[in-house]
């Protein structure tokens, strides 16, 4: 069943929904990357909630003009207009008043959403009782998705992606260093508007699939996930798009397997599952990798301290240090060094003195920068350089193991 | 110091110099809220010289640079760059912001940051080619950071970060270099690398302006000083303007007499 859904074998509507959602997921992931890097992720929350009055007003206007009020392009246009007004309000409040951005977002979000709910209630009382369906914009409703709806989503997503591709350089530049961007002649305000505008486009296009309450998740979770896997902006945008698309595809397929599973929330939960896996398992930035790295570092510190203590004939009080030394065959249970341990300890002490000279000498500047008290000196200096240091120190020469 | 420069030393910029000065501010006033940070400042930067902008904390040094670059919009005042409006000659300016002004955990590599200096050249759609990478690597080479090109910027020390910022400015191939506290919080090796690059820029006939906070190195590093504390306090060659009297006025007695004595200044 699930396999059928994943391979688009569950009928016409499920196929439309899955493809539409996946396209939206890719567009949201890529666009969200720049929103996240510009540290404006929360603005998308204001943008999405501000769509509601637009949807409702567009419906009312269409009904008053004699239509049936359910044309998706017209509803989305209304959503785009009111959400743009909401965005301008956030910008204006942040720039012209003493309100910080988070407060401005909160104010705009709740006022617009509240107004939208009032309008929805008014619509319920209208004669055109066919308002049923507008609530679908809150949490998304894919059950009655038509081919035309899917086309609107696909075209909107594709145009947004193309624009992100064209604007990726200025958006990345402004996100990293707005002052340098401004000094280079980039209009920072306009680039910011472009970032927000693209997020707005994704939001509006995604209203039908995941709804305005949850679209934020599609803009934020994929970039946060992607950040675990890469240290490059371009790669991050691509991975984020991939995660977004994958989550939407799998989520839509999952929800198609049972009648009671809502598409939008399932997509968000799938996205979250990918995030959790990344959080735990990503190389370098994942929690497991960071934990292992820390443990390895801790062992190196204890080992080094233990060896220096042995070399100077000091007693070792830390049981963890002693355990490490014993396991490596460098010390006996009573803390007395083995033959091996004595050699290694002498080397450690000697390296310590070598480092001292290296760090005092301007000529070894680049090597000295790498000093962390733990690094084996032969990983930083050549044998010849160590010989030179040893010559200055006097005493026995050579890099002992 | 070259002969032409020596001839200009000690002389305030002439009328002709003013018209074509790399950077001239007239009546510049910038305020955050109701409090002017920079008030009615005139500044004429001498071409081919290294100028230090000096003043106490909060005296508007950085703001002055930002106003000159159009990063903050002034309440009043005009900027001319090489005798023309800023917008026309912006491509001849390179800027090194304060290191702390960006998030160093940003997902980008050292080489990518330097390539940002080629933004104007690359535009929106041109692919980054070998020639662009070569140019960026040459700039990294110049600041002694070529070996770090593939590193994530968060792995760099403060001094290395500062050198990457300088490399990005070099990639802009400008005639006027504006630097905001390039020596703040860097190690000795970096300080030397940076001053060597700046002096080589000067030898190529470029103009260098830096916000500087270490009074002890002013005479060694710079040709001219611009003393500011909201208002312009003094301007001129190190020999004529970097005097105990001017420093005392600029810092409003906040410098201990001993500190000034140690600077070994010419008599005010």
From TrEMBL, chain A:
User: Which Pfam family, just one, is annotated for this protein?
Assistant: ABC-3
Record bears the keyword Cell inner membrane: no
Provide the organism lineage as a comma list: Bacteria, Pseudomonadati, Pseudomonadota, Alphaproteobacteria, Rhodobacterales
Q: Which terms are listed as keywords in the entry?
A: Cell membrane, Membrane, Transmembrane, Transmembrane helix, Transport
Give the matching InterPro entries: ABC_BtuC-like, ABC_TroCD
What domain of life does the UniProt record list for this protein's source?
Bacteria
Q: Does the keyword DNA damage apply?
A: no
**Gene Ontology BP annotations:** cellular response to iron ion; response to zinc ion; transmembrane transport
Record-annotated membrane-spanning stretches: 12-37, 49-66, 72-93, 105-126, 146-167, 237-258, 264-282
Report the Gene3D superfamilies cross-referenced here: ABC transporter involved in vitamin B12 uptake, BtuC
Family of the protein in this entry: Belongs to the ABC-3 integral membrane protein family.
Q: What is this protein identified as? A: Manganese/zinc/iron transport system permease protein
Q: Which SUPFAM superfamilies match?
A: ABC transporter involved in vitamin B12 uptake, BtuC
Cellular component aspect of the GO annotation? ATP-binding cassette (ABC) transporter complex
Family matches, as PANTHER family: ABC-TRANSPORTER METAL-BINDING PROTEIN, METAL TRANSPORT SYSTEM MEMBRANE PROTEIN CT_069-RELATED
Q: Where in the cell is it found?
A: Cell membrane
Topology term for the membrane: Multi-pass membrane protein
From TrEMBL, chain B:
Biological-process GO terms, alphabetical? zinc ion transport
- The protein's superkingdom reads Bacteria
Q: Which InterPro entries match?
A: AAA+_ATPase, ABC_transporter-like_ATP-bd, ABC_transporter-like_CS, Metal_Ion_Import_ABC, P-loop_NTPase
Question: Locate the ABC transporter domain: which residues?
Answer: 23-255
Tell me which SMART domains the record gives.
AAA
Q: What sections of the sequence does the record tag as coiled-coil? A: none
Q: Give the matching SUPFAM superfamilies.
A: P-loop containing nucleoside triphosphate hydrolases
- Give an example GO molecular function: ATP hydrolysis activity
Keywords noted in UniProt:
ATP-binding, Ion transport, Nucleotide-binding, Transport, Zinc, Zinc transport
Pfam families this protein is in?
ABC_tran
Record carries keyword Zinc: yes
Q: Which family does it belong to?
A: Belongs to the ABC transporter superfamily.
Q: What is this protein called?
A: Manganese/zinc/iron transport system ATP-binding protein
Name the source organism.
Shimia haliotis
């Amino acid at each position: 069943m699930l396999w059928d859904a994943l391979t688009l074998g569950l009928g016409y509507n499920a196929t439309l929904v899955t493809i539409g959602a996946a396209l939206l997921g890719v567009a949201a992931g890529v666009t969200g990357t720049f929103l996240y890097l510009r540290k404006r992720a929360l603005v998308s929350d204001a943008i999405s909630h501000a769509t509601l009055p637009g949807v409702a007003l567009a419906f009312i206007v269409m009904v008053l003009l004699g239509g049936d009020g359910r044309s998706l392009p017209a509803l989305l246009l209304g959503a785009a207009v009111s959400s743009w007004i909401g965005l301008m309000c956030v910008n204006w409040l942040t720039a012209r008043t003493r309100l910080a951005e988070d407060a401005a977002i909160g104010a705009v979000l709740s006022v617009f959403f509240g107004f939208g709910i009032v309008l929805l209630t008014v619509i319920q009382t209208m004669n055109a009782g066919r308002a049923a369906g507008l609530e679908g914009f809150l949490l998304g409703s894919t059950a009655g998705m038509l081919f035309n709806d899917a086309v609107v989503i696909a075209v909107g997503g594709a145009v947004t992606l193309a624009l992100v591709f064209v604007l990726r350089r200025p958006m990345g530049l402004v996100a990293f260093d707005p002052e340098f961007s401004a000094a280079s002649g980039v209009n920072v305000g306009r680039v910011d508007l472009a970032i927000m505008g693209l997020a707005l486009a994704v939001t509006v296009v995604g209203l039908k699939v995941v709804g305005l309450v949850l679209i934020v998740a599609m803009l934020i979770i994929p970039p946060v996930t992607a950040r675990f896997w890469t240290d490059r902006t371009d790669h991050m945008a691509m991975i984020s798009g991939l995660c977004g698309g994958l989550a939407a595809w799998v989520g839509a397929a999952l929800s198609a397997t049972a009648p009671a599973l809502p598409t939008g929330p399932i997509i968000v939960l799938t996205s979250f599952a990918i995030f959790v896996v990344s959080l735990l398992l990503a190389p370098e930035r994942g929690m497991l990798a960071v934990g292992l790295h820390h443990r390895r570092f801790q062992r190196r510190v204890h080992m080094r301290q233990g060896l220096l203590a042995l070399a100077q004939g000091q007693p070792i009080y830390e049981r963890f240090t002693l355990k490490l030394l014993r396991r490596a065959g460098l010390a006996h249970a009573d803390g007395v060094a083995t033959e091996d341990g004595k050699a290694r300890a002498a080397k450690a002490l000697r390296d310590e003195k070598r480092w001292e000279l290296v760090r005092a000498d301007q000529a070894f500047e680049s090597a000295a920068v790498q000093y962390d008290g733990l690094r084996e000196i032969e990983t930083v200096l050549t044998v010849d350089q160590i010989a030179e240091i040893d010559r200055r120190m006097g005493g026995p020469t050579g890099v002992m193991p | 110091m070259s002969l032409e420069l020596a001839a200009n030393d000690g002389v305030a910029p002439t009328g002709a110099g003013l018209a074509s000065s790399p950077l001239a501010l007239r009546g510049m006033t910038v305020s955050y809220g109701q409090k002017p940070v920079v008030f009615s400042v005139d500044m004429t930067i001498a071409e081919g010289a290294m100028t230090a902008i000096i003043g106490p904390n909060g005296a508007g040094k950085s703001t002055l640079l930002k106003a000159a670059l159009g990063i903050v919009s002034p309440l009043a005042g005009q900027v001319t760059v090489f005798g023309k409006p800023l917008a026309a000659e912006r491509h001849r300016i390179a800027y090194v912001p304060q290191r702390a002004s960006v998030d160093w955990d940003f997902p980008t590599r050292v080489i990518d940051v330097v390539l940002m200096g080629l933004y104007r050249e690359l535009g929106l759609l041109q692919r980054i080619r070998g020639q662009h990478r070569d140019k960026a690597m040459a700039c990294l080479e110049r600041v002694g950071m070529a070996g770090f090109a593939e590193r994530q910027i968060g792995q760099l020390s403060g001094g290395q970060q500062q050198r990457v910022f300088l490399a990005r400015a070099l990639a802009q191939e400008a005639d006027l270099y504006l630097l905001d506290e390039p020596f703040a919080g860097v190690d000795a090796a970096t300080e030397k690398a940076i001053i060597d690059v700046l002096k080589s820029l000067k030898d190529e006939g470029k103009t260098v302006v830096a916000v500087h906070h270490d009074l002890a190195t002013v005479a060694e590093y710079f040709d001219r000083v611009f003393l500011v504390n909201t208002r312009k306090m003094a301007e001129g060659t190190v020999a004529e303007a970097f005097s105990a009297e001017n420093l005392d006025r600029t810092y409003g007695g906040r410098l201990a007499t001993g500190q000034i004595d140690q600077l070994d200044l010419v008599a005010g």
